[in-house]
Design a protein that fits this description.
Helix content: 25-40%
Oligomer: single chain
Largest sheet: 4 strands, antiparallel
Structural class: alpha+beta
Distance between the termini: 8 Å
CATH topology: Alpha-Beta Plaits
CATH class: Alpha Beta
Order of helices and strands: EHEEHHE
Number of domains: 1
Shape: flat
Radius of gyration: 14 Å
């Protein structure tokens, strides 16, 4: 079943972050991910959520595939390019069976 990777980013160096995004997007495509949301408007509707500066949602075919992407050399290279450019929080959640 599908899994959704959610990434929250607080960017401190926009130019360096652009380099990360280029590498990240290539790795997402290589591991079969599909971006479902990237940097659009976010509104908190209830509770104590903190409105993220940047939010990305990527769909993968499975939780295992999302983890393959995350652990891949391609994504790790992207993360190395991001060091010092942004603070990142990532999580992955398994979707419901169809």
């Amino acid at each position: 079943m599908a899994a959704y990777l959610l990434a929250e980013a607080t960017v401190s160096d926009p130019l360096a972050y652009e380099g990360y995004q280029t590498l990240e997007q290539a790795a997402i495509a290589q591991y079969g991910g599909r971006c479902r949301a990237r940097g659009g408007r976010v509104e908190v509707l209830e509770g104590g959520w903190t409105k993220p500066e940047g939010l990305v949602i990527v769909e993968f075919d499975s939780l295992e595939q999302a983890k393959r992407f995350h652990d891949s050399p391609e994504y790790q290279a992207a993360r190395a390019a991001c060091r010092g450019a942004a603070e990142m929080n990532l999580l992955v959640v398994e979707g419901l069976p169809l």
